[in-house]
Design goal:
The chain is 72% helix and 0% strand. The radius of gyration is 16 Å and the shape is elongated. The protein is mostly helical and 67 residues long. The two termini are 25 Å apart. The longest helix has 26 residues. Keywords: Membrane, Transmembrane, Transmembrane helix.
């Protein structure tokens, strides 16, 4: 069950990042980085997707204590 949850979280956050990246490219972020500040909701969505991706990536890699 953990594997399925982790796979769904990884795939979902990766897809979310791709959508955000396409929107940023459509707004012209490659020409002007200041465009990101004009769209704070998209910037927040990208940040949340990165947090989900990082947490899902580390979900199965907890350090085990010997005792």
């Amino acid at each position: 069950m953990k594997f399925l949850l982790r796979a769904i979280l990884l795939l979902g956050s990766l897809a979310w990042l791709v959508v955000c990246a396409k929107q940023f490219v459509g707004f012209g972020i490659l020409d002007n980085l200041g465009v990101a500040m004009d769209h704070p909701t998209l910037l927040i969505q990208t940040f949340i997707a990165l947090i989900i991706l990082r947490s899902a990536w580390m979900f199965g890699h907890e350090k085990r204590r010997p005792f």
